[in-house]
Amino acid sequence: MSQQPPSPPTTHSNSKPEIPDPSPPNTQPIIRQGREAVTYHIPTCPLSPAHPVLKTSISLPSRSKWTSGLHFHMQHTEYLRLVRGAIFVHLNGDVKLLSARAGGQIIRHRNSGSDEEVKPSLVVRVDRYARHSWGRADEYLFSARDKQGSGGEGFVLPDDANEEVMVEEWTDPSDLAKPLFFWNLNAVVLAERHPSSMVSLRKRAARWVLGDFWVPFQLFVIFWELDNWLILFSMRDAVGLGNGMPTFLLPKALEKRVGRGLEWLVAFVVLGAARLLGCVVGVVAVERERTPRALWEAYEGRRT
Fold first, then answer.
1. Mean pLDDT, the chain, as a whole number?
2. CA nearest 273: which of 247, 265, 190, 296?
3. pLDDT number for residue 284
4. Rounded CA gap, 134 and 79, in Å?
5. β pairing state of 56-60 and 123-126
6. How many CA atoms lie within 13 A of 211 on its CB side?
């Protein structure tokens, strides 16, 4: 799962995340409020026989516009399990609509006697290199309706669309990458709202030079090391896929490969450049101050 830099926070009284009671075991919450309100319950301990899979729980309150952002993973297969509410999952160009109350994926049939059917399963498998994102179903459907100007025709929300969403994420192989990613990403985002003067001269100089790009730059360094490859912009549209523009005179299958290759190339170049600059100015993906002690010790032990 990837995170794009969040929009400037604003206060919404009905967009305050709630902490589940009880919280998932061996996790600690991180809460971000505003229009992209979200609560993460992130593991604080490494793998053990008692906890062979490290799961992160993500909760989205009603009206939260948070999404994971379009991204892919090279080294991990990812799993999403819907626990509560309704979500959309964008997976390799297809959009799935899942409802916990319905028990699975809701499939609409506009031209048949049956309005909808449910494909049982609340778990979505995201294979390596599959571009994907997810978020609240209601926000996705409202946005799609507005873009299409449908005025509500054929626009049906799941019964639990207004409920708080909870999703569990984990990976195969199960390792430290996912919890380290969430701990360090959120620390960077929250530090921007409460900046500290306890940084090196090189970092202060880099922050002054980069200006508003300082936070995305730090996130790109994290993305590079922790297998979260951001789709910076859709190159499939750039080669004419699905947008009504003239296309290359290529078979559709080859055209998709071209678009996918361009997306990967852009991600590799941009994130790789950030990683190199990070080496120069001392910005790293994982820092002791941003990471729970047990995870940090496991991370350091893996590197030695």
1. 85
2. 265
3. 97
4. 12
5. unpaired
6. 1
All domains in the chain, ordered by first residue: 27-172 (2.60.120.10), 179-303 (no CATH)
pLDDT tens profile 135-146: 999 999 988 877
**Residue 241 pLDDT exceeds 60:** no
180: phi then psi, degrees, rounded to nearest 5: -60, -40
Apex 37 CA angle, 99 and 121, nearest 5: 20
Q: In what order do the strands lie in the sheet with 116-120?
A: 116-120, 104-108, 94-99, 86-91, 132-136, 71-72, 229-230
Residue carrying the six token digits 């990976």:
171
Please name every residue paired with 82 in a beta bridge, in sequence order, or none if there are none.
Answer: 167
- Whole-angstrom CA distances from 263 to 67, 131, 219, 237, 240 are 19, 10, 18, 11, 14
Q: Does pLDDT of 245 surpass 80?
A: no
